Amino acid sequence: MGRPEALPTYDDATTATTPHPWLHRRQKRKTLRVLGAAAMTYLAYTTFKIATNTEPPISSLSIAKLQEDHAVCANLRHQPVESGAHRDHNKRWVKSTKPVLISNATIWTGEPATGTSEQDARAGKGWGWIASDVFTDRGLIISVQPSIKLKDLPHNTEIFEANGRQLTAGIVDMHSHAGLESLGNLQSDDNELSSDITPYVRSLDGIDPLQPEFESIKSGGVTTSLFLPGSGNNIGGEAFVLKFAVGPKNGRTEISQQDLIADPDRTWRYLKMACGENPKRAYGKVGERGPFSRLGEAWEFRHALEQARSYVQDQDDWCAKADTVGVDKMESYLRRDLQWETLGAVLRGQVRVNTHCYTIPDLEAFVRHTNEFKFRVYAFHHAHQTYLVPEVLKRTWGGTPAAALFADNMYYKVEAYTASERAGAILYAHNITPTYVSDNPVLNSQHVVFEAAKAYGYGLPYHAALAGVTSAPAELLGLGHRIGKVKSGFDADIVVWDSDPLSAGATPVQVWIDGAKQFSEPIELKKPLTPAIQPDTDLAHEYTTRIARGAVVFTGLSYSHSSFVSNGADVSQKHSVAIITDGKLACVGTCTSELAELEATRSATQTINLKDGYLTPGLVAFGSSLGLAEIDAESDTHDGPYVEQGTTSALDGLSFGGKQLMRAFEHGVIRAFTAPGEGGIDSRGVSVAFNTGAKNALEEGAILYPELALHYPLTLAAKGGKTPSISSAIGLLRSQLLDAAVDGHTEKLNTTEKAWLKRVVTGDSALVLSAHSADTIASIIRLKSQVESASSQKIRIVIIGGAEAHLIADELAASNIAVVLAPLLPHAQSWDQRRGLTGPPLTNVSTNILLDAGVDLGIGVEETWETRDLGLLAGIALANSEGRLSFDEALDLVGANFFNILGLEVSKSDPHDWVVWEGSPLEIGGRVKAIGGVGSTTIWK
Ligand SMILES: *[C@@H]1O[C@H](CO)[C@@H](O)[C@H](O)[C@H]1NC(C)=O
Ligand SMILES: *[C@@H]1O[C@H](CO)[C@@H](O)[C@H](O)[C@H]1NC(C)=O
Ligand SMILES: *[C@@H]1O[C@H](CO)[C@@H](O)[C@H](O)[C@H]1NC(C)=O
């Protein structure tokens, strides 16, 4: 190879910039180009000056520099070539890395069986998991075949026994900002916000290889990522494809940015662009600077590309002339300008553009730009509206871009409000590639494979979902011949999983990068060996919903939650039935007499035959902003911020009928316990419990508990206003509670905060405190005992957040404080969460530590969109519980436990509180079929 090191960006950056007399004129010429016709008189003057001046003769130009410039012409004309040629070794291979035999694995190679037609492959035929061994050496996968004999391998080969576990290629996340923000987000280097058009900056310059998230991301099986600048700028800068092996402990020789680069040949370059809300918000200033609107953004793009086009033309003209007349006769040097160099390379086809673009106007304008300036865009990122306009995408110059998506993170801003969970499936059906990305830290890249898993659950074929985090992004990065598959000749980036990677809770057992093992003492969960998922093509079928009145009989129940089995119902046998009458659960079990009665009375009945049916109570969203905030970034769609003084009651701010509530309801989350606030776990005021499917607050059954519990924030969000520190916030709360404890009077006005504090100290109401830090939690434990000794009553405290609760689990249990984990899987998004556990193979599991200590637990969410995934989150806790949780107990983490920890009566007796599912609610692919209601049943078919 050799050539790519000489790509302009790198040698431009190192070329000595000694000013030359010619530069002065060049600048004038540039100015002229900008001023255009209006400056013609000036042009005449300049020409005259040049002609009459005592110009240095041509020979005064440095021949050496002219020749150097001429050599650059070859680079400018170079078209990147992905070498599929046989490699003797991987250039990233470190010689101390020994050969490895991974034996007895169940392998997803990333390709269909040989001989599968393209059409069949697209339709999902010919794909499968194969029982095989893998042998790696010199940083490459050497062979993938069953029964590789050790005697045929080098004597120093290390053996890894996979014991039948699933093995895939390393996960590729093509949208990450890892390493650009420091632990707890204290520092950020992801956006160069000095100007809207910064093609000349490079993400690599800000990447800190020592960020702890490199290790935790890799512990999710992610081996390679595209590290993009942020989306604050229309043109944000160059991106880099890096691998997550850092320093000697990961089998590298040094800790450096350079050592992370995935392709030492640097075949391709990458550029980040962004459309829409972000650049407008970052720059638009009336009368001062744009872009103020999408109109201005289109101009910013076109104007920049116009500069690049003329830059390219100048260079091409120079090179052509130098070729013709001979370089020593050239009267000027080759034009070199770092500002436009990267965009020039884009127009030369050397750079893979990745563009953050959500909406139809953004996508369509960008597609026009590609046609006007003739450059490719490889993927639209965020791309939440691409599923609506596949034909627009197909008009992109140079080939249809892929869509880099989240599975179900949506509604957080206007641009994301029209998103669909089925986007991936729809795009795939239109021959457009969906890939799944984290946008770390927006989602934790560690769990990007969970995005692919959910996409499968939402109807994307299984093989396409898995490709969406392996071979598809690899190909989009121009590295499809090297990474993303388990195939001889590919980089030895390999993950052995403890279960099917597209199942809830799937966790790597070990990860290799370039053949080097990444975890020296991996923590492995005790999980039974489970077969890979049998892809369910029915998931592609989108349900429609309707309302049923009268009797509905569900057959084929294989599970019913214990709360329904009290009346001697028999669900131990398969083919159990559930009978629903006017939305009420009337019978569960064999229901022989009830069925006979229905038959006898010839009641209008419909029967729904379930394949693996589940009957559960409704799931509960605790502490989210469901019903109070619809679009996170738009305050007009919120009830509003909590106030520091007085008591706000969430009931007064509820709005029904939003998409957030609808999605929660459709996912079986039919109860929401919501507290005042604008999202996140930090609330202040009195929460409400309500039905997510209700039409308004006055509808029968809409409100379960108008006043539920008193909430206070004690995370970093507590700092501000009257309590600038955590200590002052705790101090104020303590004195208020102690006041309430010693104050004998019962308040007349029961809606004041004082009255609520009184309810707390008398044990009539729970106090819900948001906190992540183990030290804040310690203060809360102390506060609880102080108040209890003052009032001689037990008080009820619930902590929401709890990233560091595992550090103080025994003390929490001893003081009877319940914890609602939100998020379930923390990733140090704030300083007070930095000691949260990210899970195996790197750390133990937080839920398990808390369960072992005997802490009462629930699972909440940090962001409203996640409420739809509560079942899956409980599934993750179950899968990783090593037997600590039964199925019912896992379900209760997002249900009955909230009633218990708040001291409410479990709504066991509510005959409307039930959900029928097809497939397990705790597994990918489980879907809601019916939900109880007052007088009617909502059915999905
Ligand atoms: C492969 O692993 C499975 C599951 O642990 C085990 O039953 C089987 O005996 C193993 N096969 C070999 C050849 O070791
Ligand atoms: C407030 O008073 C009303 C009416 O007396 C009562 O129904 C309600 O439960 C009280 N709320 C609290 C928080 O004490
Ligand atoms: C994980 O938990 C096990 C069992 O409780 C314990 O022995 C081990 O030290 C823990 N490992 C880490 C890294 O905390």
Automatic annotation (TrEMBL):
Top-level taxon of the source organism: Eukaryota
Record domain Amidohydrolase: where: 460-515
Start-end of Low complexity biased regions: 8-19
Stretches the record annotates as Disordered: 1-20
InterPro entries: Amidohydro_3, Metal-dep_hydrolase_composite, Metal_Hydrolase
GO BP term, example: N-acetylglucosamine catabolic process
One function term, GO molecular function aspect: N-acetylglucosamine-6-phosphate deacetylase activity
Pfam family, any one: Amidohydro_3
Keywords: Hydrolase
Name of the protein described by the UniProt record: Amidohydrolase 3 domain-containing protein
